[in-house]
Amino acid sequence: MARVRAPEQTRKNIINSAFDEIRTYGYQGCSLDRILKNAKVTKGALYHHFENKAALGIAVLDEVIETFLYKQWGPSLENQDDPIQCMIDRINEMVEKRFAEDLPVLGLPLGNFVQEMAPLDKTFLLRVRKLFKLWQELIAVALQQGQAAGTVRKDINIEQSALFLVTAYEGVTSIVRASQTREMLQDTASALIAYLETLKA
């Protein structure tokens, strides 16, 4: 019986495996051998779809992390009258999940790329900027909707507040990744929630 070729599925498996690898070990520390093993593909299949490791990293940013980012924040913020409470609930859910499952804090995959590659490679830098802008815009639109609904203060600077929330959330996960302590996770999450409370009308 002839073997059925599924190049698109193979490509998807490689990218998803690379995402998991990069999130755990970082881009520079990721192993192509582990990526291939977890994706159950050959090295030939890898290089059929991606010219090199950098091309694979860009594909992870464009096709996985952008989707991951939107799924994490888009549905919970779209068309919400009270976006502040939605963000607080999102943070609490993240903390509770890690406490319940005793999960390690791996940091945001986008942040991992920022720390490793943005200062070194212009192509990565431009992709990272684009994704941070997307994240900021998701929050800014939600805050504007909250202002219209009367749940968000009218006197705040939307763009600055959205930018601060993005950088603060990223900073929280980066610090907690370094410490890997529940106390640090709880304390930093509580501080971020306290800031969000100040934005309520």
Task: Provide tags for this entry.
single chain, 201 residues, mainly alpha, 0% strand
Fold blueprint:
Layout: H1 7-25, H2 32-39, H3 43-49, H4 53-77, H5 83-101, H6 109-116, H7 122-149, H8 158-179, H9 182-198
Helix pairs in contact: 1-2, 1-4, 4-7, 5-9, 7-8, 8-9
Series of secondary-structure elements, N-terminal to C-terminal: HHHHHHHHH
Strands, total number:
0
Q: How many H/I helices?
A: 9
- Average residue pLDDT: 82
Structural class category: mainly alpha
CA distance, first residue to last residue: 67 Å
Major β-sheet, in short?
A: none
Give the low-confidence spans. Answer: none
> What is the helix content?
over 70%
Q: Beta-strand percentage?
A: under 5%
Tell me the radius of gyration. 19 Å
Described by the principal axes of the CA atoms, the overall outline is elongated
Question: What does this protein look like?
Answer:
It contains 9 helices and no strands. With 201 residues, it is an all-alpha fold. The mean pLDDT is 82.
